[in-house]
Amino acid sequence: xxxxxxxxxxxxxxxxxxxxxxxxxxxxxxxxxxxxxxxxxxxxxxxxxxxxxxxxxxxxxxxxxxxxxxxxxxxxxxxx
Length: 80
Hints:
Elements: E1 7-8, E2 11-12, E3 24-27, E4 32-36, E5 41-45, E6 56-60, E7 63-67, E8 73-76
Antiparallel strand pairs: 1-2, 3-8, 4-7, 5-6
């Protein structure tokens, strides 16, 4: 059984599949900006899978990510 900490040294901890299991990212995420350029674009396609009774919904969004202070983030790799 794999146990995940809810905090590390008093700071909130979260698990994601977007970071390899042997790595850790630590930082002040108030210095990370996610800039959204438009609303969410939705395409509803009720024809492609009509025989199966499905509706295909595709969502897209234009965003940029900017780190205001690179010293606010640390990456640790090869954790055993």
